[in-house]
Give the backbone structure.
Amino acid sequence: MNINQATDYGFRAVLYLAQKDGREWTDAHTISEHEVIPIRFLLKIMPNLIRAGIVKSQRGIGGGYALARNPKDVSLLDVVEAIEGPIYLNRCLENEDYCSKHGAPVCKIHRTLEEIQDLLSSELGRRNFADLLD
Amino acid sequence: MNINQATDYGFRAVLYLAQKDGREWTDAHTISEHEVIPIRFLLKIMPNLIRAGIVKSQRGIGGGYALARNPKDVSLLDVVEAIEGPIYLNRCLENEDYCSKHGAPVCKIHRTLEEIQDLLSSELGRRNFADLLD
DNA sequence: ATTAAAATATACTCAACGGGTATAGTTTTG
DNA sequence: CAAAACTATACCCGTTGAGTATATTTTAAT
């Protein structure tokens, strides 16, 4: 029950870019050094943030990455979902077929976990990267 | 970011026993059939619940499992922790050494995740198995 | 046009974990 | 003592996590 390392690196990369406030390109090497992230791993993670519209990139000399949106419009949930996909506390909340009692009218455990999952999502959605800037 | 299958089975086994309200022993075979849990896997999971003091067992003819406490005194968190161990949203919340920026005075991301983790724990702690009984 | 600096795409590795199964043993009661 | 139960330990095997390697493409400066 936790976020993975890639997501943790993603948080830190986004926070680092948020400090620049979209003014300039920052290359992977710089992010990697400041945030202590293995560079090849970082380079694999970044495209996920780009596909999610959180970050933009520029190739070639002088290129790098920058935030694509205002820090206050990027939530922790955005980053988690960009890297790990949607959050499901229990796999039966992803697909009912996973429930071995599948067909049982409504599972009380299932519903309770769903409530907690919704709470978790909304809490991650409330925190944005502007709040995280000192 | 989810609970594992063993924990889901654990929830269901405990809920099933809660319905019996500690009055009698229920053997693994019966739980396995009613809750559609592979019996050998169930037999591996149960000792975790026993070590946590949630369930008690009796060997021999007529034996089986029963709740060791009142259903209202068993929370979802109790079962999660019995089977998966403590909840850590991020591994740096388990041990600071996992933070590659280890030594950074205080990480804002770390602190925010901790808040959310505490919320999640308390929410899982609030729901007990008496509530889950129809 | 060429070169160098960047990101991108794809594939690979390797250990750990998830989800189970198998075998052998112990306790209890009849 | 035999049968019914739980217990302990060890194995299996596919997937995921975390990261590395190689080759390619885009871009800007010269």
Remarks:
- Chain B has a mean pLDDT of 92.
- Strands of chain B lie at 55-58, 64-67.
- The radius of gyration of chain B is 18 Å.
